[in-house]
Design brief:
4 strands; 16 helices; two-stranded antiparallel ribbon
Length: about 475
């Protein structure tokens, strides 16, 4: 009998049993360690379940919609010329305090575009103006410039210093119409003046939102001003610190004020996710190349339950609320947006982009559980009107605070995201009514208009929220 043969078999069998035993023991240790860690700290994602606050939409259904359908479509659309080029004024002075904290780091700088780099359709200065403004408003009488014959006069204006200060009755009536029109437009933020010489085009793909190293007193001052001076708070919390509202204290606020706070908190969370997901790592000692990528520690420092006194997970949950509000705005404005030309001068590109936008809006319209804006500003008409005006003014202040950001790249994306949110609010409170069935009519240009700047900001702002929810899923995998 060949004993050596059987001996070898027993040895191999023993090794397999031993290896399996070690593996099982290791798995048990990992499992118990994970369980122990979970029991000790709820982590970052402990509130990402159930319904979005003040809504009936489930968080998991919103994640499924975004990560599987919205994000891939939107990510592709925002790379197109119409959305990647935005005209912005980064030289506006801060209206609230002296700008003494200008960021000098190279990653804070913004690369602007030359005329040669722009698509044909955007080189025309009129392309940035409201293309419906002339059609929507009565034409004012023409006054001839010096040296030309006026339609109403027999002699040309010869003196170079001449300034015609007369206003016809027709013009006075037109001014009244313009005032009524401006008041009727529920604008929630201050847009840059398209005629300003400081307006410049920026390619967003060459200036992505990511961590630049801008930190310290300046950004803290921005957010403190937003939360302390412009967010609503319970009367007894007059001395509260930024972002210190708890869910319990939020219950003391009316729905409208909770909505305002959750939207701003969700925007703040989204920006912090971008900074964590596109974090600037120091240059390698071998290659000297800076790299950006996900930073688990940075994400946890901003959202972990223990590291944020229990508030971080709620900030993360507020992101889903902000997303839901802007999602509803896109659904409501779908009839209007589907009729836009998205003109860049490239016929093939423009037709393709319009087809892609209609496909995205189709997906959004099919989603069954949107935010219901008709719940806002109910009750006593006088009180509701006053609250709505206060809501509007608070948000307009926040849009002005964006000009106080010391980092140009941070200012660029701050302005875009606040303008996009302001455009979403403008849509929600316009149209043929309020509520799930209401829309913004595509044929009502006199009552509702969007400038190209507003459309570009709306889609890019929603794109930032979409990418944040997509990044949350990645961080959840990395930290599990």
């Amino acid at each position: 009998m060949n004993y050596s043969k059987y001996f070898n078999v027993f040895v191999i069998f023993g090794l397999i049993v031993s290896i399996d035993s070690v593996k099982n023991k290791s798995k048990k240790n990992i499992g118990s360690s994970a369980t122990s860690s979970t029991s000790q700290s709820p982590g970052c994602f402990c509130k990402l379940f159930g319904e979005v606050d003040d809504c009936t939409c489930k968080i998991d259904s919103l994640e499924s919609l975004n990560n599987l359908q919205v994000y891939p479509r939107l990510d592709s659309l925002l790379a197109r010329n119409f959305f990647r080029y935005v005209k912005v004024n980064l030289m506006k002075e801060c209206p609230f305090w002296a700008d003494d904290s200008k960021c000098a780091m190279k990653n804070c700088a913004v690369k602007t575009c030359t005329a040669e780099q722009l698509p044909y359709g955007l080189k025309n200065a009129d392309g940035e103006c409201n293309k419906y403004a002339k059609e929507a408003q009565p034409e004012s009488p023409r006054t001839a410039p010096p040296g030309e014959k006026d339609e109403d006069c027999s002699e040309p204006r010869g003196d170079l210093g001449y300034l015609n200060t007369t206003i016809s009755k027709e013009s006075e009536e037109a001014f009244k119409d313009w005032t009524k029109y401006d008041d009727a437009q529920e604008t929630f933020c201050e847009l840059d003046d398209d005629t300003s010489p400081n307006m410049q085009y920026v390619d967003l793909l060459l200036n992505p939102e990511r961590y630049t190293g801008y930190k310290g007193e300046s950004p803290h001052r921005i957010w403190n001003s937003i939360y302390k001076e412009n967010c609503f708070k319970p009367a007894e919390q007059s001395g509260y610190n930024s972002q210190s509202l708890t869910e319990k204290s939020l219950e003391d606020l009316c729905l409208e004020k909770r909505v305002f706070y959750r939207m701003i908190s969700g925007l703040h969370a989204s920006i912090n996710i971008h900074l964590s997901h596109q974090y600037l790592f120091p240059a390698s000692t071998c290659y000297g190349i800076e790299t950006w990528g996900p930073n688990n520690d940075e994400f946890q420092s901003r959202f972990d339950h223990e590291k944020t006194d229990g508030r971080g997970p709620q900030w993360l949950k507020n992101l889903y609320f902000t997303y839901l509000v802007e999602l509803r705005a896109l659904e409501k404005a779908a009839p209007y947006l589907e009729q836009e030309d998205y003109f860049t001068g490239d016929d093939e590109e423009d037709v393709s982009l319009k087809k892609g936008i209609k496909d995205l809006l189709r997906v959004i319209k099919e989603f069954p559980n949107h935010f219901d804006e008709s719940r806002l500003f109910r009750g006593n008409k006088k009180e509701a009107k006053a609250l709505k005006q206060e809501f509007r003014e608070h948000f307009r202040n926040i849009s002005r605070i964006m000009d106080c950001v010391g980092c140009d790249k941070c200012k660029l994306w701050g302005k875009i995201q606040v303008q996009g949110m302001g455009t979403a609010l403008k849509i929600l409170f316009s149209g043929d009514g309020m509520g799930p069935q209401s829309t913004v009519s595509a044929g009502s240009k006199r009552k509702f208009q969007l400038r190209r700047t507003e459309i570009v900001s709306l889609f890019n702002a929603f794109g930032r929220l979409s990418s944040s929810i997509h990044a949350v899923e990645e961080f959840r995998r990395r930290l599990s």
